Amino acid sequence: MRFVDEYRNEAGAQKFVQAIRRVATRPWTIMEICGGQTHTLIKSGIDELLPPEITLVHGPGCPVCVTPLELIDRAIAIARRPEVIFTSFGDMLRVPGSGTDLLSVKAQGGDVRMVYSPLDAVKLAQKFPERQVVFFAVGFETTAPGNAMAVWQARQLGLTNFSILCSHVLVPPAMEAILGSSGNRVQGFLAAGHVCTVMGYWEYEPIAEKYRVPIVVTGFEPLDLLQGIYMTLQALEEGRWGVENQYSRSVKREGNVSAQQLVQKVFQVCDRQWRGIGPIPQSGYGLRPEFAAFDAALRFNVAGLTAQESPLCIAGAILQGLKKPHECSAFGTLCTPEHPLGAPMVSSEGACAAYYQYARARGKVSG
Fold first, then answer.
1. Domain limits for position 153
2. Cβ(33)–Cβ(61) under 8 Å?
3. Residue 42 lies in a domain
4. How far is residue 18's CA from residue 33's CA, in Å, rounded to a whole number?
5. Are the C-beta atoms of 190 and 58 separated by less than 8 Å?
6. How many whole angstroms separate alpha carbon 167 and alpha carbon 106?
7. Model pTM score
8. Taking CA 49 as the corner, what is the angle to CA 185 and CA 217, rounded to the nearest 5 degrees?
9. Among the listed residues 143, 78, 149, 88, the one whose alpha carbon sits nearest the alpha carbon of residue 115
10. Among the four residues 10, 79, 203, 292, which has the most C-beta atoms within 10 Å?
């Protein structure tokens, strides 16, 4: 555990906290993009250690949370078909659609299976040639190379019974949507280190320049986050903007070029609907025309399904950093992890789930 514990060291954390307190001279609002970072911040109590000048808000960095409701309904419609083996990562199984979820479809007899890799779904397609195998391809740029490889491999193998239901979303357009909104309150960003491990951080440089904000690529352990906050705060106090890399042990400016090239061969940038936020132009990946045969939405004719969000759920405001989870009237009462109204409460990376699990235990929020 040495290489983990060194980033959870209490003495090191206190040094960063003291440094942050010395630097902060006025109120600043910083957004972390990644849901995993949100959970570390709340679980570790970092939000309570910071001086009152620093406000942390939680961005749309949970891929499960921003997957559109209609796409969940499309997944459910496909999974109910008797000829289909529907595969997904586990965190998507309990995300509520309009009336049910994938786990309930499984309980009712649907062949819904949790897998640990999209390549597991390709193997199932090889094993069961008489069945249609569908993988729920959800995620940010982090998971795109694996999903691209699955489609690429399926084509190389000549599989006609494998397809993906694709809902990839991209971080930079979401950041621009937040910074360009009339109600924006974000003055600096902690960028998600795992996304940048794949894509690098060159895409963030024009955004930092255009909106004059500091963006710090940050890891996921408590000391990573404290250092990222400190670096962002230093830039804000000094009136600097640009991109800095706290997570240098994993991230290079150019990213993983081989992974990017594979993604570009299989996917193309497209407009994408974000749950709770709405459409963001050029903010997702879709399959290129030459790979359309692997598009489950087309194969099963579900692309036209639409859905309506619960009026009680304020996930959109939370994902844009406009409100905190405990400001929702349904938080902890009508909306709980056992009976969620929206994905941020059920997802392992959702801000609502983090507040429910950790902040409530500290007695800081009601519900």
1. 64-170+255-299
2. yes
3. no
4. 24
5. no
6. 21
7. 0.87
8. 55
9. 88
10. 79
At 109, list the tokens: 């007899």
Residue 317 is encoded by which pair of tokens? Answer: 């405001």
**Amino acid in position 318:** I
**pLDDT, tens digit, for every residue of 10-48?**
888 899 999 999 999 999 999 998 888 988 998 889 989
Alpha-carbon gap, residue 240 to 245, rounded angstroms: 15
The alpha carbon of 212 is separated from its chain's Cα centroid by a whole number of angstroms, namely: 24
DSSP state of 26: S
Q: Is 344 inside any structural domain? A: no
Which positions of the chain have pLDDT values less than 70? 1-4, 307, 309, 348, 359-367
Q: Where do the DSSP E strands lie in the chain?
A: 28-32, 54-58, 84-88, 112-114, 132-139, 162-169, 188-192, 214-218, 242-245, 267-274, 278-287
How far from chain centre, in Å, is Cα 114? 19
Distance from C-alpha of 329 to C-alpha of 259, rounded to nearest angstrom: 43
Residue 2 lies in a domain: no
pLDDT for 9: 83
| 27 in any annotated domain | no
pLDDT attached to residue 365: 54
Q: What is the pLDDT of residue 312?
A: 80
Cα 138 from Cα 135, distance rounded (Å): 9
Q: What values do phi and psi take at 243, rounded to 5?
A: -115, 130
pLDDT for 260 equals 98
What's the number of domains the chain is made of?
1
- Give the C-alpha separation, 42 to 59, whole Å: 14
Number of Cα atoms under 13 Å in the Cβ half of residue 148:
22
CATH number of the domain at 277, please: 3.40.50.11740
Which residue type does 124 have? Answer: L
SS3 356: helix
Residues belonging to the chain: 367
Residues 168-196 have pLDDT tens digits of: 999 999 999 999 988 899 999 999 999 99
Joined together, the tokens standing for residue 217 give 């690529």
DSSP code string of 36-85: HHHHHHHHTTHHHHS-TTEEEEE-S--HHHHS-HHHHHHHHHHHTSTTEE
Determine the distance from the C-alpha atom of residue 214 to the mean position of all C-alpha atoms in its chain, rounded to a whole number.
21
